[in-house]
Write a structure and sequence with these properties.
Blueprint: E1 15-18, E2 22-27, H1 43-54, E3 64-65, E4 74-80, H2 83-94, E5 99-106, E6 114-124, E7 129-133, E8 141-152, E9 157-163, H3 170-177, E10 201-209, E11 216-220, H4 227-232
Parallel strand pairs: 4-10
Antiparallel strand pairs: 1-2, 2-4, 3-4, 5-9, 5-10, 6-7, 6-8, 8-9, 10-11
């Protein structure tokens, strides 16, 4: 599948927040956060190059990957610039001391205008897919999110989603399970792909305590430029 033609580079990187400890960027659809079997340049390497060029740093640049987003999604990704920040951020993310809000443009209206979804996700590594079950099954993990309808578009619906757990393909799988596949997401039952290989899922907002300064920090990422996202902002 063709991926978005515009990848992040050190020159066009969308930096949302930056200090000596953190660097938060707005990932473009098609960027991979960490290296994989494709061999494509990951966002982590792009951010290292950006730091090296901006601050004229010789030698290796320290950068810690705190969490990931699926390749076809867009939005907020946090990197740590120091080992102290990395260990504290890892703890915050694993203990769910962060608040994450996503936007998803979906095919159908959900059964209710707002709801809290609880499923048990079972991952199939061969298919790189997670299946949502209403009851616990062997090797499944509990997945919880809350959604509300944020806007009605002509043929689609914008949902705002708050994640309580962070499972593999959680939002994609859970929304598909209630009959609301995300636009462009062939893997989870949308009927056709987006031309650029993206899906209309965006990590919109993140609130957390700064790992070193201990001050509250909220970051909001503008969605990619396209006709549908433009109607949502």
């Amino acid at each position: 599948m063709q991926q978005s033609n515009i990848h992040s580079t050190p020159k066009n990187l969308q930096v949302l927040f930056e200090d000596n400890h953190l660097l938060i960027v707005n990932k473009r659809p098609g960027d991979i956060v960490q290296g994989d079997k494709t061999g494509d340049t990951p966002l982590s390497e792009v951010v290292k190059q950006y730091i090296a060029e901006k601050y004229n740093k010789p030698g290796a640049v320290f950068l810690g990957v705190v969490h990931r987003l699926d390749r076809p999604t867009s939005g907020i990704v946090v990197f740590a610039r120091t080992s102290k920040a990395l260990s504290r951020l890892n703890k915050m993310f694993s203990e769910r001391e962060t608040e994450k809000t996503y936007w998803a443009i979906v095919k159908n209206d959900p059964p209710k205008p707002s709801d809290r979804l609880v499923h048990y996700l079972k991952r199939n590594p061969k298919q790189n897919k997670s299946y949502a079950h209403s009851n616990e099954v062997p090797e499944s993990k509990k997945a919880i999110l809350s959604y509300s309808v944020a806007k009605k578009l002509d043929r689609y619906t914008l949902l705002e989603i708050d994640l309580e757990t962070g499972r593999h393909h959680q939002i994609r799988s859970q929304l598909s399970a209630i009959g609301c596949p995300i636009k462009g997401d062939l893997k989870y039952d949308f009927d056709r792909s987006n031309k650029d290989g993206s899906i209309h899922l965006h990590a919109r907002k993140l609130s957390l305590m700064h790992p070193v300064k201990k001050e509250p920090l909220t970051v909001i990422a503008p969605p990619p430029k396209d006709v549908l996202w433009d109607l949502c902002v």
